[in-house]
Design a protein that fits this description.
This protein is α/β, with parallel strands linked by helices. It has helices at 28-35, 37-41, 46-54, 58-62, 65-89, 96-103, 106-138, 146-161, 165-191, 218-228, 237-240, 249-278, 288-297, 301-316, 319-334, 352-369, 373-376, 382-402, 407-432, 438-465, 490-502, 516-532, 549-562, 589-600; strands at 478-484, 505-512, 538-542, 566-576, 604-611. The protein has 24 helices and five strands. Residues 1-20 have low confidence and may be disordered.
């Protein structure tokens, strides 16, 4: 029997394994490694996104790189402070979905959930493709194989996450430290350079800087700001996965959130200072970060360390989604907005179905984009800003209801966050709409409609099952057990033994086809049955076609019509092979019978597994 039972229309209630201790939970440090890679790795493409937009205004436009980055860092500070409050107020996780559900109503919570789902899925695809872009910047000969490399990395990340979030954090903590150390070292060394040490990385690559400078207007700055806001994705992941932390979970999650904000802010501003200091110009086929490493360290081993660390962390930053999205899917399943299977946990506290679903959709996006980052980036960051805005708006209402010490200041902070992220959401959507963002605008409401349809379906099922109402007391019906048989073996004996233990009456059923060989085999079975004399009658069911399931289902329907009030059970004996590969040797007759009986009758189906011992 399964460790849990779930009735349609009710949320799943999984039995916790005996060991739910701290070894399956995150500390502040491992939480930073497991849930913050997305945000930290975005320093590889956030500043580059700003530079590419400002390059349209020539060298004069690049001078605004630092002011735009400072504005993004200020928004980051507001978001980190706001999400610290979300963590404290909603320690069960869920982030913007939980906040909206509590204070803004069901529809707003579904919009928040849909926006986060889209952003998490896109994050995986963008992270993996950006990691491959860093690799191909150092080794251009691999550029043609980037799609297959992306898929291999996705498979590896999925495999690690199926072992549990703590194991994934332990695997990723070393690459995280190496990446942070290399970026901070790059910034520290670069600040002491009066000019670039080397420009070899960009040699031979065409500049994308505009020949004729244009006026730097508000629209261009807004577009640069919108592009750079891709660096803020992932800030909410810790708030979504608070239950994954060790006790006190909320306090540890808050520490991880603050550490994330501090590190990300320092790296973003530091890299932007170096871009302005070195007068760096974006070039085709080589990343801005690669040029900065070349300018600070020179084209030596340190340059390749930075590129390799960036490639690894960008690829692994998809782990943020694998840590946050399955928890969100679990909450949606608990509230009947997704299939309840997403609420189940494996032995290692893994939401396995959420992990596999995320991997499958991300793989489809990688194939669609051909492993190209630029195809996916325009779709990125819109959903997360919608979630940011909903979360901060809900927190304003939360503080107004809860009050408490300094509640006015907290509400003002969240209100400021709501305004800033709301404006950012509009700007990002407007500036990227024709670049593909319209897909998100269409997908978001469709996803909400899907949630609603699932919820209504569970509601109808629950109504028919009488969920929430006291049912009639159980009573004993006369029972009839049917056992499909095709030969006389030990399996047949085991099946009849189980059947007579279950029912008042037992019948063995065999299907006879018109072929001479089949008739001869059936007659031989009937002779052997008479000699064996198990005390159970053998019923021959004729079938004009060479099928097994439909004739048995038709016989069940005849019995049900002739004997109303009798509980009919079909007990299907099957062999459980000793080796997994031996499953391909089975004829799958039991599965065929079970499918036909389930589809065409109301009979109870019982599948008896007879285990073969290995020698």
């Amino acid at each position: 029997m399964s460790a849990m039972t779930t009735e349609p229309g009710t949320a799943p209630r999984a039995e916790e394994p005996p060991d739910t201790g701290a070894r399956h939970k995150l500390t502040a440090v491992t939480g930073l490694a497991a849930l913050s890679l997305d945000a930290m790795a975005s320093v590889a493409y956030g500043p580059e996104a700003i530079v590419l937009v400002l390059a349209a205004a020539g060298s004069y436009g690049l001078g605004f790189t630092l002011p735009v980055t400072v504005a993004i860092a200020a928004l980051l500070a507001v978001l980190v402070a706001s999400y610290r409050q979300v963590i404290a107020a909603f320690p069960d996780g869920g982030g913007s979905y939980a906040v909206a559900k509590a204070h803004l109503g069901r529809r707003a919570s579904l919009v928040a959930a849909a926006s986060l789902v889209l952003d998490y899925v896109l994050n995986v695809a963008v992270a993996v493709t950006a990691g491959m872009a860093a690799l191909t910047s150092a080794f251009p000969e691999l550029y043609g194989e980037r799609l297959w490399l992306c898929l291999v990395v996705l498979v590896l990340i999925t495999a690690v996450n199926l072992r549990g979030i703590v194991d994934s954090a332990r695997v990723f903590i070393v690459p995280t430290i190496v990446f942070i150390g290399s970026i901070l070292g790059l910034i520290a060394v670069g600040l002491f350079r009066a000019a670039p040490v080397s420009t070899e990385a960009a040699a031979g690559h065409a500049s994308v800087l505009a020949d004729n400078a244009i006026t730097v207007g508000a629209l261009l700055l807004l577009k640069a700001f919108a592009s750079g806001c891709s660096a803020l994705t992932g800030v909410e992941a810790i708030a979504n996965a608070v239950p994954s932390f060790r006790a006190p979970a909320a306090r540890r999650a808050q520490r991880a959130e603050v550490a994330l904000g501090a590190l990300l802010g320092v790296m973003l501003i530091g890299l932007s200072v170096l871009i302005s200091r070195f007068g760096l110009q974006p070039a085709e086929g080589v990343t801005v970060l690669a040029q900065l490493a070349d300018a600070s360290f020179g084209h030596n081993l340190a340059f390749y360390v930075v590129q390799f660390a960036t490639m690894v962390l960008l690829a692994l930053s998809a782990n943020t989604s694998f840590g946050g999205l399955p928890v969100l899917l679990k909450l949606l399943a608990r509230d009947n907005y997704l299939p309840h299977v997403f609420g189940l946990k494996a032995d290692r506290q893994v939401h396995r179905h959420g992990v596999l679903a995320l991997a499958a959709v991300s793989a489809a996006l990688l194939v669609f984009s051909g492993g190209d980052t630029n195809t996916l980036v325009p779709l990125f960051a819109i959903g997360v800003f919608v979630g940011f805005t909903i979360a901060q708006t809900g927190m304003v209402l939360h503080w107004r209801e809860v009050r408490g010490p300094l509640w006015v200041g907290k509400a003002l902070l969240n209100g400021l966050g709501a305004v800033l992220t709301g404006v950012s959401a509009v700007v990002v959507t407007a500036t990227k709409f024709h670049d593909g963002a319209w897909l998100i605008v269409v997908a978001l409401p469709l996803l909400v409609v899907g949630f609603e349809c699932i919820h209504r379906a569970y509601g109808r099922i629950g109504e028919r099952l009488g969920v929430g109402r006291i049912p009639e007391p159980p009573h004993c019906d006369r029972s009839l057990v049917l056992v499909p048989v095709s030969s006389l073996t030990r399996l047949t004996s085991e099946a009849l033994t189980a059947a007579v233990s279950l029912g008042d009456e037992v019948r063995a059923v065999t299907v006879c086809h018109p072929d001479p060989d089949d008739r001869e085999q059936t007659e031989a079975l009937e002779r052997d049955w008479a000699l064996w004399n198990p005390g159970v009658p053998l019923i021959r069911v004729a079938s004009a076609r060479r099928t097994v399931g439909r004739p048995i289902a038709a016989y069940v329907r005849e019995l049900a019509a002739a004997r109303p009030g009798t509980r009919i059970t079909v007990l299907i004996p099957e062999v459980e092979p000793a080796r997994l590969w031996q499953r391909v040797l089975q004829n799958q007759r039991g599965a065929v019978v079970a499918h036909a009986v389930r589809r065409d009758t109301d009979a109870v189906i019982c599948r008896l597994r007879f285990r073969l011992q290995s020698h």
